[in-house]
Design a protein that fits this description.
The protein is mainly α. The chain is 73% helix and 0% strand.
């Protein structure tokens, strides 16, 4: 064994990319749930040994919350990006729902939304997970509300932007549940189109 090998530092490997790691462990949490995902499975998915995983993200609950926030804020950023584009508000809302459906039904198996599919299960007994999920739900509704507030001239005075935002958030949850239960993408797109009509009337 050479001196170089003996002195090689343990821990985070060269080329460690937190975003990539969180994306990989997200797949495990979506498939297994928080309780069902073992540390060995998470470490294997992350491409890290368990000490490195602890050093980078903390314990399993902290890793889950970090993954949840990473996933959720990417979703919020995506909503903002779509609504920052051009076109009628109903078309852009349809684009948001279409993008969500693509994520919810991505292979190898439909997995839905991390908040609806896994965080809601743990929330009654894990207040930190409940708080993180609630913050993301609020951030999602805030993104919708900003968009509807800017589109007041296109929409009727009622419902209010806040009420429309809540409807849009509820629509996302419903699409996620249906996707996790095995609904086909075409069916989900048709369902989303009907929801857009109601929300943007």
């Amino acid at each position: 064994m050479t001196e170089e090998v003996i002195r090689r530092p343990r821990g985070r490997p060269r080329g460690f990319e937190p975003d990539e790691v969180l994306q990989r462990v997200r797949a495990v949490f979506l498939e297994k749930g928080f309780a069902g995902a073992s540390l060995d499975e998470l470490a294997e998915a992350a491409g890290l040994n368990r000490p490195s995983l602890y050093a980078a993200f903390g314990d399993k609950e902290q890793l889950y919350i970090e993954t949840l926030r990473h996933y959720g804020m990417h979703g919020v950023d995506g909503i903002d990006a779509v609504f920052a584009g051009k076109g009628p508000i109903d078309k852009r809302l349809g684009q948001v729902f279409k993008g969500a459906i693509e994520i919810y039904t991505a292979p190898p198996v439909p997995q839905g939304c991390m908040i609806v599919g896994t965080a809601a299960v743990e929330a009654p007994t894990r207040p930190k997970i409940a708080a993180a999920a609630a913050e993301l739900l609020q951030a999602t509704e805030d993104a919708f509300e900003r968009a509807f507030a800017r589109a007041v001239g296109e929409l009727a005075a009622a419902p209010s932007p806040k009420a429309r935002a809540r409807l849009a958030g509820t629509a996302l949850h419903s699409l996620a549940i249906r996707a996790r239960l095995g609904a086909e993408p075409a069916e989900l797109r048709a369902y989303a189109a009907s929801l857009v009509t109601v929300i943007c009337r």
